[in-house]
Amino acid sequence: MDRVINESSQRITQHFGGDHRGVDLGWRTDESQNKVHANCKGTVVDAIDGLNRHEGSTGWGNYVCIKHGNGMYSRYAHLRKGTVAVKVGQVVDENTVLGIIGDSGDADGRHLHFEVSTDHGSASRINPEPYLTKAISDNAPTPTPSSKNVNVIYRVKTKKHGWLTEVKNLTDYAGYENSPITDVAIKVDKGSIKYRVHVRGGNWLPWVTGYNINDIKNGYAGNGCEIDAIQVYYYTPDDIRPFKKAKYKVNNYSFQHDTETTNGQDGYAGVYGVNVTKFQIVIE
Ligand SMILES: [Zn+2]
């Protein structure tokens, strides 16, 4: 096998770890086995040649750096002087020979020093050993951490005014001039939510999870009658920790968290028998 990258984990002479931010692969007496191939498709962003052992300022000597389609980079260092066979801007793939294993730069003997990083700099180098046997761009790009903020959008309906405009988080409250609220619709931009309302003088209506004022079944909570309580529960998605809760209130009562009944909470927001005229919610 003459492919140095990919199928070459048996040639490791020094593992990744500590100050060694790459993996070293040994050379073979059969020169045909010292051709260095690109890990997978990408564009050459650095192609340095012309350096002997102990020359150059980076320590890498003659090297090639490739940017892959998923935003990750691979670097192939200590190539033999005069063998770098690609140019900056060239599109290469796993069949492209980049150069021959050498000892240019700060190399203790002849070997390939292979690095993988999540950006072009050297601070973001990760363990390259998994990429000795698989293509870098088969992997999803390193996910950028999603914002942990969850936005909640909601609106209410009154008999007199119909559906009122949407409110986001605590920028305002939903409701209008002490008009009794009959229906509520709530949505979140991450995770999911369930909610229900209690009809004044009646019962709790079924939980709903959707947000669509034209969907009488699951698009909003309410049946057109005045309500006196609201219950909301927020489901935190896997990529957001710690867990968040729906924090909500009606009228000028205190905030309720999800359906909790601890710390003096009722499990819902509202007082049976009293019309709900204002509603506010945030996810925290
Ligand atoms: Zn090394």
What do you see in this structure?
There is one protein chain. The protein folds into two domains: 9-138, Glucose Permease (Domain IIA); 152-283, no CATH class. The chain is built from no helices and 21 strands. The protein has strands at 12-14, 23-26, 35-37, 42-47, 62-68, 73-79, 91-92, 97-100, 111-117, 125-126, 152-158, 162-163, 167-168, 181-188, 192-199, 221-222, 227-235, 246-250, 256-257, 269-270, 279-283. A hairpin with an 8-residue loop joins strand 1 (12-14) and strand 2. It starts with 11 loop residues before the first strand and ends with a strand. The model has no long low-confidence stretch (mean pLDDT 91). The protein binds zinc ion. The site of zinc ion has 5 residues, from loops.
Task: Briefly say what this structure is.
The chain is 0% helix and 34% strand. By secondary structure, the protein is mainly beta.
Bound molecules: zinc ion
Q: What's the total count of β strands? A: 21
Mean pLDDT: 91
Q: Determine the structural class based on helices, strands and strand pairing.
A: mainly beta
Count of helical stretches = 0
Q: Give me the strand/helix succession.
A: EEEEEEEEEEEEEEEEEEEEE
Strand content: 25-35%
* Head-to-tail CA distance between termini: 56 Å
